[in-house]
Every structure is written in structure tokens, then in C-alpha cells.
Write a structure and sequence with these properties.
Blueprint lengths: L2 H14 L5 H22 L1 E5 L13 E6 L51 E5 L12 E8 L4 E5 L2 E4 L2 E2 L7 E8 L7 H6 L4 E5 L2 E7 H8 L4 E6 L25 E5 L6 E3 L2 H13 L6 E4 L2 E4 L2 E3 L1 E3 L4 E5 L9 H4 L2 E2 L3 E11 L17 E2 L2
Antiparallel strand pairs: 1-2, 2-20, 3-4, 3-20, 4-18, 5-6, 5-12, 6-7, 8-10, 8-11, 9-10, 13-17, 14-15, 15-16, 18-19, 20-21
Amino acid sequence: MSLKFWKRKEKNQHEEEKPKSKAREWVDAILFAIIAATLIRWILLEAFTIPTPSMESSLLVGDFLFVSKIHYGPRTPKTPLQIPLTHQKIWWTNIPSYLDVIQLPQYRLPGFSDIERNDVVVFNYPAENHPTDLKTNYIKRCVGIAGDKIEITDTQVIINDQPVDNPPDMEFSYLIKTRNNSSINDRVFKKAGIWDYERISNGYRVNATTESAEKLSDFPFIETVQINKTNENKSEAGIYPASGFFNWNKDFYGPIIIPSEGMTIDLSEENIAKYRYVIENYEHNESVLEQDGQLIVNGEGITSYTFKQNYYFMMGDNRHNSLDSRYWGFVPEDHVVGKALFIWLSLDPHESFLKKIRWNRIFKGIE
């Protein structure tokens, strides 16, 4: 080989070994971080925050928690045209972060556990008009699994005819009547561990645990503390299912069977009232119509129906201040996101500066 050839080869090698520019290094690092974070968020863990009091006092407003995707198995993406690490909107704007022109079939990869009663579960809010994987994330407690018969009698959840253990930090609404209609200082509520309260005509309405409500009854200026229950057979607006068949409310509900995959029901008038919404909205049928008291599914009149997936009944631990399955029905299995594991940070919105951090809740497991 000629000397000229070796010189050209050395020159090419020198050019190939030229170090990357700082800008190129930053771009590569950012791309790697986005890809790694996206994979971790999809397969392993995702961070969530608690924005509402529906799970108090088990989970508090300002709790930041990690949710496991691998417990129940991660779902494959349904909406691929999406800006990474976003949900419905681009950060700090109202601009949609996705295009729904492509919708892929969704599958669940294997997990190492099934959804069990009493699990605290994150899921996509079913009654919302977004692609399944981009519906708003909710967090509730699973009180009933597929195939269970669920009933609520005088605030007590009953599964398969047996009362279940209540969460230890469960809250209810209470009516507080004060002597001479006097006002209560904010410090009194804080001392009792109560943050959610409002003044009404003859006292206060609070959301509190039984223990906190009992603390209030010890004060001499408080006359009565009474749970704010709805009477039996008094129908409540917005309760699922929306039908004149049932006089149900948040404290007296059911009984109703939670659908399970492969479960077949006769389509009686009552069962159509209970399950038509599920069959129409979550079972991926092409069309569902009701005509002359009969369901017509995919163009065919049917007298029975077999469910295609499992469903779950979710409730908030703040039983009188939670928008849950009592109001919008069952959670389909393909809407389940993951299992809540532990709190990694907790910020008290009622405090300021250093007092804002709830140190006793950091790395607390979720039960």
C-alpha cells in the first residue's frame, strides 16, 4: 500500500475519534433520561400525588406516593402519539399532549399478584371521554372484586353476606351542634385532628374519623356529635345505576353482583338496568341498543350476556366525601393502573415553611 493511503486512513480514524460537542452530549443525556424515565414509569413505578380528601385519613391531601405497575402487570400503550412523561395536557398548559388518530389494542403483561380486597388501587376514571390510558387517574380502596356480591347497610360494607373489616382511618360526615349556636375556634378542630369542616345554620358539618369525632364530644361547649347518615330506602341523586328500580344511596346500597370474566347473566329488566351501562361502554361492543325491553348487541337481540373482563368496586375511605363506584359504577380491569405502595413525601397544605413537611408520613407504607 502506498504511503498516501495510510495517511488518508489515519486521517479518517482521527476524524471518527473526534470528541462530541457539549451540545451533543447534553442532547444524548436528555434523550437517555427521557427513555429511561418513560420505561420505568411504564413498567415499574410511577409517582402520584393526592389532590383531594376522598381517601382521608388513610391518605392525606399533599401525600406523594409511588404506585407499582408490576404488581398487577403493566399495560401496553394504547395511545402511542403522546409527548413522553405527560398525561392529558402539556405541562402547565391546557394543550392536549396526545393525538388519538392511532389507537392500539391494549394488553396487560404478566404481574405477580391479582387485585385483592382492601388493596389501594390507582385506576383510570371510567366515566370519562378520553382514551383509556389517558383518562384521569383516581385512587380508591378496592372493596369488592370480580364475582363478589356487594351491599352497604347502614354505612357497613357487606361482601358475600359477610361484614368486612373497615379501614382503621375511615372517615364519615358528622353534624356538630354547639351550645347556644356558638362558634368553634379553628384550634379546637386542629387539636382533634380535623381539617375538613364548615359552618352550617345550627353548628358545623365535619368529615372525621370516629376517634376524632369522639374527641369533639368531650368539649363542654359542644352539645351533640351525630353521624350524618342517609336514611334507608331514600334514593340519592347520582347513585349508580341511574334507575327507578333502586332506592339506593351512599349508606344503603345494593345488593349487586360485580361482573367477572365469563359470568353470564339473564337480561331481565332489572339486570338491564344494572348492567347495560357496562355492556355498552366497557365491553368493547360495536353497538348496544335497547328496544322494547330487549338489548340488541352488535345488531343481534339477546336474552343473556357473558362478560368479557373482570370488574372491581372501588370506594374512598372518606365514605361521605368520595366520588366512587357508588356513583359511577364498576372499574373495568383494563382501566387498572397499579397498586399504591408507599408515601415518599407528604406536604401539609395547612402549614407553612418547615412545618409543611409531615415527617412521620415519609416512607410510610400504604395499607
